[in-house]
Amino acid sequence: MANRPAAALVLRDGDREELSRLTRSTAARAGLAQRARIVLLAAEGASNTAIADKVGVSRPTVLDWRGRYEREGMTGLDDDPRSGRPKTIDHGKIVSVTLAPPPKKYGVTHWSSRLLGRHLGISNGTIAKAWRDYGVQPWRVETFKFSTDPQLVAKVTDVIGLYLAPPENAIVLCVDEKSQIQALDRTAPMLPMRPGLPERRTHDYKRHGTSTLFAALEIATGNVTAACKPRHRHQEFLAFLRQVARAYPVGELHLVMDNYATHNTAEVRDWLAANPRIRVHFTPTSGSWLNLVEVWFGIIERQAIHRGSFGSVKDLNTKIRAFINGWNDRCHPFVWTKTAEDVLKKANRQTTSNTDH
Q1: Cα–Cα separations (whole angstroms), residue 51 to 43, 59, 289, 353, 354
Q2: Sign of CA dihedral 108, 111, 115, 118
Q3: CATH superfamily of this structure's domain 155-342
Q4: What is the per-residue pLDDT for 352?
Q5: How high is the pLDDT of residue 355?
Q6: Lowest mean pLDDT among 182-196, 206-220, 232-246, 307-321
Q7: Do the Cβ atoms of 112 and 139 come closer than 8 Å?
Q8: pTM for the whole structure
Q9: Residue 86 burial by CB count (10 A; 0-12/13-18/19+): exposed, middle or buried?
Q10: Which residue, 234, 229, 290, is CA-closest to 261?
């Protein structure tokens, strides 16, 4: 009789949905999600031993949490209040320790809230609150690159001046190419998004080749002139410039672009010399952030390419063109707001900060 399985736990009205939500939630504490899972398994009639094995806890732990649910319902799954006065520490001290490298004995590159909490003898919740209050995010990292272009000041001033005060009746176009766009085809159908679940797709894919997207963004309207080509040599770039010239047959064109090798060949320079209404403004070396078409490339990557599945390069190009057609129907101006002085001041501040490290 001692080994007879416990009867299935009877759940209160509405608790099954809440318990299921806790087991799926990424915001719920791990302990609370574990307790919810124990109660759900108990409600399905699983034995206490089977629940312990499945959840990875001891049998007494299973008995404790199912008993607390029977007595108190959902509130019984919360942590008991701790006895004694909790240890307190100034948030400034927490942030100060966070900004210093962790001791070598931990073998980590940056603090986690749990590790720092253990190190300081306080809860990871206190650590997380201090980080939120001070805007500290140790898990994040960004990259940067300084321009070594000797004409940095002149080029930044020229391009930003063009954005903020373009010549009267002139058209400003930001030009570049997004090369090596892969036509990736997932090996299984995507599973659509559902309430509580994001869209899911298999990690495996087939490669069907690549395409290069040439684009010219008109900053005053957001309209994009584009072409998909198999390669990105100077021949393709020159053909695209001719396409842009046909799209804007009248008036002065000011093209903002980087000094990539294919943009500055003798053939391209000769063509520009023969078309004096088209003027080029080069961004500084390592200054792609100054070209607004890069912002648009980010938009098409997120909205049409990254989550797409393409059975061929032709399929990829067709879907890129479909996005561009839709974009041009709803496009909006791209507005630059910072002055050249603001940008150069910030760049100078970044290059001279932390020089003692």
Answers
A1: 11, 8, 54, 56, 54
A2: positive
A3: Ribonuclease H-like superfamily/Ribonuclease H (3.30.420.10)
A4: 44
A5: 42
A6: 182-196
A7: yes
A8: 0.63
A9: exposed
A10: 234
